[in-house]
Amino acid sequence: MSRWRARPGPPGWGDRSTERSVTHATAANPGRPAERDISRALAALGPRKLVFVGLMGAGKSAIGRLVAQWLQVPFFDSDHEIERASRMSISDLFAAYGEAEFRALEARVIRRLMKNGAGVVSTGGGAYMNEKNRRVIGDKGLAVWLDAELDVLWERVSRRDNRPLLKTEDPKGTLQTLMEARYPVYATAPLRVLSRDAPRETIAGEVISALAAVAAQDTGNVS
Ligand SMILES: Nc1ncnc2c1ncn2[C@@H]1O[C@H](COP(=O)(O)OP(=O)(O)OP(=O)(O)O)[C@@H](O)[C@H]1O
Ligand SMILES: O=C(O)C1=C[C@@H](O)[C@@H](O)[C@H](O)C1
Ligand SMILES: [Mg+2]
């Protein structure tokens, strides 16, 4: 049994026991899950960070941002934080200092982002491969793996050339090699959601459901 307990949601979110499971989607918030599910997801998260892990193109940044917006918690993207701190693009960082320096900076940024309570952190595709990163994420967060098939990833990443690891003669083959090396490690994340050719709101909704299910298991209060 986890030490995390379901707690009431923030003021104004209503009583979980009486709230109806209706969707609260609006024109400004299409696909937003029911308040009851949002409230349960927040209770499961507690003061932790929900940390998106997975390969390039899985949707960590896009889905993470939407989930944070729905949960009304701060959102951070480790790649963006690295670019902000270094005032360089990731491609330029790789070119100027090499991957090892990038990974050192990434580890520092992740350690910092894991502090200070509830939120959502979308990591870069290689971050979860570092054992120290996995440890800090496990201590202060809850990792969700956005699993995706090669063709889905390829269709998305081939639109842009901003991923230095894919600047090879056979980028799709490189992506496949990365999948084979990384998926067993991503699979150690406690939560997994299949990212596929479906609306972002569908995938984000499944992340909220996966989180809400953690709350239900922890409390034994499944309804
Ligand atoms: N469900 C979806 N449907 C359609 N497009 C999507 C979906 N999810 C993500 N995308 C798009 O795919 C592209 C890659 O997504 P995103 O940048 O979020 O991936 P990522 O996992 O953060 O990759 P990286 O590890 O390189 O940061 C973006 O253009 C994003 O808008
Ligand atoms: O998969 C990876 O190792 C990477 C993914 C991107 O998010 C960036 O963090 C960088 O391009 C490296
Ligand atoms: Mg990203």
TrEMBL record:
Q: Quote the record's binding site residues for Mg(2+).
A: 61
Explain how, and how many, cofactor molecules are bound: Binds 1 Mg(2+) ion per subunit.
Q: In which pathway does it act?
A: Metabolic intermediate biosynthesis; chorismate biosynthesis; chorismate from D-erythrose 4-phosphate and phosphoenolpyruvate: step 5/7
Give me the reactions it catalyses: shikimate + ATP = 3-phosphoshikimate + ADP + H(+)
UniProt-annotated binding residues for ATP = 57-62, 163
Q: Which UniProt keywords apply?
A: Amino-acid biosynthesis, Aromatic amino acid biosynthesis, ATP-binding, Cytoplasm, Kinase, Magnesium, Metal-binding, Nucleotide-binding, Transferase
Q: What is its main location?
A: cytoplasm
The record's annotation in InterPro entries points to: Shikimate/glucono_kinase, Shikimate_kinase/TSH1
Q: Where in the cell is it found?
A: Cytoplasm
Q: Where is this region: Disordered?
A: 1-33
Which cofactors, if any, are listed as required?
Answer: Mg(2+)
Tell me which residues bind substrate: 79, 103, 125, 182
GO MF annotation: an example: shikimate kinase activity
Return the EC number: 2.7.1.71
UniProt family annotation? Belongs to the shikimate kinase family.
Q: Entry's NCBIfam families?
A: PRK13946.1
Role noted for this protein: Catalyzes the specific phosphorylation of the 3-hydroxyl group of shikimic acid using ATP as a cosubstrate.
This protein's assembly is summarised as: Monomer.
User: What name does the UniProt record give this protein?
Assistant: Shikimate kinase
List the gene name: aroK
